[in-house]
């Protein structure tokens, strides 16, 4: 991505999440700040009339982006119930959890590229949204530092429980970088959990998935944010296990649909070429 502008993929995700709030009822994921953090021109157009965005922002993709946030925050809620007091949002983009966090005991660390973070904070100021308490914003360039160094400098307490959300990032990183990041996170020992998404290996994608993947890969290449990695579920399980995680599971699109869109509950069908993974360095209590 260019150093002088926010990530285009972050903008894309924010647009879909904002449209989800206005077009999909009931929503998979409720986010009253989704429109606030989008590009102001898009926000005005969406609020004036969301219908033109219904076909343009594909409903299956909207559903996946909403579901991955819902899944991560559902897992976070369980961790908080069990005593977790630190939430790290890696590659936070235009995420809004820090604005919705009602738990004063939970400290939030947002970590992202300086340009994306600066634009997000500027939009919040322009919208008159106050900076949330118990949130630290740390600008980092992941290409020049190890993740462990970044988290240490951001003020994350390695001796206390940590929950990490890492959404919409892994597919833009080489396999070895993904491996190193998981090793860094896993090195925190028995105190860490993570949710992340990854691109399903091309050989395991259906014809329909490949068609969508090829389209988005071409667009990502044109925007200078190319896809760099893809995995099988077994490879993800092995990567997490080698990084020290003892509880690992992956979530397919079928499983996400059963969880969030069962029996046409909201008229949505989660589609795409990504899957979710959850890993913990210990097995949480039920």
Please explain how this structure is put together:
The protein has 286 residues and is an alpha/beta fold. It has one domain (8-280): Vaccinia Virus protein VP39 (Rossmann fold, 3-Layer(aba) Sandwich), CATH 3.40.50. It has eleven helices and seven strands. The protein has helices spanning 8-23, 40-48, 53-56, 59-81, 97-100, 114-126, 147-154, 175-186, 207-222, 233-242, 253-260, and strands at 86-90, 107-112, 135-139, 162-166, 192-199, 247-251, 274-280. It has a seven-stranded mixed β-sheet, with helices on both faces. α1 (8-23) packs across α4. The termini are far apart. The mean pLDDT is 91.
Note the main attributes of this structure.
286 residues; 7 strands; globular; alpha/beta; Rossmann fold; 7-stranded mixed sheet
Specify the overall morphology. globular
Q: What's the CATH H-level homologous superfamily?
A: Vaccinia Virus protein VP39
Q: What is the strand tally?
A: 7
C-alpha Rg (nearest Å): 18 Å
Strand order of the biggest β-sheet: 3-2-1-4-5-7-6
Helix content: 40-55%
Mean pLDDT: 91
CATH topology: Rossmann fold
Low-confidence segments, given as residue ranges, are none
Largest sheet: 7 strands, mixed
Q: Number of folding domains?
A: 1
Share of β-strand residues:
5-15%
GO biological process, one term: methylation
Family: Belongs to the UPF0677 family.
Organism: Trinickia soli
GO molecular function, one term: methyltransferase activity
Topology:
Elements (H helix, E strand, L loop, with lengths): L7 H16 L16 H9 L4 H4 L2 H23 L4 E5 L6 H4 L6 E6 L1 H13 L8 E5 L7 H8 L7 E5 L8 H12 L5 E8 L7 H16 L10 H10 L4 E5 L1 H8 L13 E7 L6
Parallel strand pairs: 1-2, 1-4, 2-3, 4-5
Antiparallel strand pairs: 5-7, 6-7
């Amino acid at each position: 991505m260019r150093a002088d502008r926010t990530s285009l993929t972050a903008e894309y995700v924010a647009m879909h999440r904002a449209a989800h709030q206005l077009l999909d009822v009931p929503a998979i994921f409720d986010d009253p700040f989704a429109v606030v953090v989008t590009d102001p021109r898009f926000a005005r157009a969406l609020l004036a009339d969301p219908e033109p965005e219904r076909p343009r922002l594909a409903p299956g993709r909207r559903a996946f982006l909403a579901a991955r946030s819902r899944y991560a925050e559902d897992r976070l809620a369980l961790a908080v119930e069990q005593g977790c007091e630190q939430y790290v949002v890696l590659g936070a983009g235009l995420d809004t959890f820090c604005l919705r966090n009602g738990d004063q005991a939970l400290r939030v660390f947002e970590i992202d590229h300086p340009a994306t973070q600066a634009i997000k904070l500027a939009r919040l100021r322009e919208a008159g949204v106050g900076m949330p308490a118990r949130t630290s914003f740390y600008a980092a360039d992941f290409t020049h530092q190890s993740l462990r160094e970044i988290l240490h400098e951001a003020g994350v307490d390695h001796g206390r429980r940590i929950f990490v959300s890492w959404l919409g990032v892994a597919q833009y990183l080489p396999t070895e970088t993904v491996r190193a990041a998981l090793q860094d996170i896993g090195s925190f020992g028995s105190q860490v959990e993570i949710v992340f998404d990854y691109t399903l290996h091309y050989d395991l994608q259906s014809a329909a998935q490949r068609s969508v993947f090829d389209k988005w890969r071409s667009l990502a290449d044109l925007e200078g944010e190319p896809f760099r990695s893809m995995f099988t579920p077994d490879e993800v399980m092995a990567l997490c296990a080698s990084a020290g995680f003892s509880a690992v599971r992956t979530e397919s699109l079928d499983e996400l649909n059963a969880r969030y869109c069962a029996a046409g509950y909201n008229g949505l069908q989660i589609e795409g070429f990504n899957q979710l993974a959850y890993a913990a360095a210990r097995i949480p209590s039920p």
